[in-house]
Amino acid sequence: MPIINNSKTDPNKILPMTYLWARKHYKDGVNNNWTPEEISMQKDVEQWKSAKLSNDERRLILWNLGFFSTAESLTANNIVLAIYRHVTNPECRQYLLRQGYEEAIHTDTFIYCCDTLGLDPDDIYNMYKTIPSIREKDNFVVELTESIFDPNFSTNGIENIRKFLHDLIGYYVIMEGIFFYAGFAMMLAMKRQNKMIGVGEQFEYIMRDESLHLAFGCDLINTIKDENPEIWDEEFRKEILELIKKAVDFEKKYAYDACPRGLLGIKAETFCEYVEYITDRRLERIGLPKLFHIENPFPWMSQSVDLSKEKNFFETRVTEYQSAGALQWD
Ligand code: MN
Ligand code: FE
Questions:
Q1: 320 with 309: CB under 8 angstroms?
Q2: What residue segments make up the domains of the chain, in order of their start?
Q3: How far is the centre of ligand 1, averaged over its atoms, from the C-alpha of 177 (Å)?
Q4: What residues are neighbours of ligand 2 (ion), with CB under 5 Å?
Q5: What residues are neighbours of ligand 1 (ion), with CB under 5 Å?
Q6: How many Cβ atoms from other residues are within 10 Å of residue 219's Cβ?
């Protein structure tokens, strides 16, 4: 029962299931439910209006709100308009619907940040056009994933399966797995220093969701590879590796642009090292050789994903989030 190009798949018949990992990711997503309004922005509003933030800190916050505000809807559109059409397996589609909803929550997060901080939406939502290092990342993903947006595209035949896999790697591994992570590290570094903790917490929740999106994406990619081993030849693996190298360069450029002089005692180079570290994790995950062999410069990043119930208990929040057990996120 292959996952794509299976004429026997009835997209409306979810039971019995073939791909239990898809179901598990769906359940983990549901257990992670959250909404941005549950996070207080009061301290952030005070800080934002005060003189306590440096110009570099403000720039970094704006850059990240600018990148993520449009990147989240780009991702949502990719799922709904391109991926969903070609993945007919019902348990995968159930997950994709959940992911689409989570992307809507993420889109909502940036509306909430703009509203509470009183930011000019035209500034924030135009950054993907006006800021070169943001535009380059977005354009890279859009160009990289052009083929499956073609209304005549089908996944039939070895070349098309290859194209589909290439585009899935563009969406999941590059966009959600690499292009989000310098920003995550910067915003969480701020939060660790008690700066913009509400925005930081929103980014933590987003990051936890994204780690699941990435886990699903890699399982999907690996399943297609396993079921169509002929597509994963040396030439294609090389091509993918080159793409990922380019993506790393774009992300490093972005990291320098968002915080040219480093921040909070962290040099811009260290954010780049973090990008290298997470890229090696992504490569391992899809069975490609590591490129950088570097230690994680921010071990605290992996703890951020595990937001426990206790934390909520001591804070003012009413909702209890179920922790998703051993959630692997980086
Ligand atoms: Mn997202
Ligand atoms: Fe996502």
A1: yes
A2: 53-308
A3: 11
A4: 75, 176, 210, 213
A5: 72, 103, 106
A6: 20
Q: Cα 83 vs. chain centroid, distance in angstroms?
A: 16
pTM score, two decimals? 0.91
Q: Are 197 and 44 in contact (CB under 8 A)?
A: yes
59 phi, psi to nearest 5 deg: -60, -45
Q: Active-site positions? A: 112
> Which two structure tokens, joined as six digits, stand for 99?
């992911």
Residue 149: per-residue pLDDT: 87
Considering every ligand atom shown, identify the ligand nearest to the alpha carbon of residue 108 and give its number.
1
pLDDT at 315 over 60: no
Give the contacts of 147 (CB within 8 A, at least 6 positions apart). 153, 163, 164, 166, 167
**Mean pLDDT score, 115-142:** 92
Written as one letter, the residue type at 310 is E
DSSP, residue by residue, 116-182: HHT--HHHHHHHHHH-HHHHHHHHHHHHHT-GGGSTT----SHHHHHHHHHHHIIIIIIIIIIITHH
Single-letter residue type at 107: T
The class (CATH top level) of 53-308 is mainly alpha
Q: How far is the CA of 214 from the centre of ligand 1 (A)?
A: 10
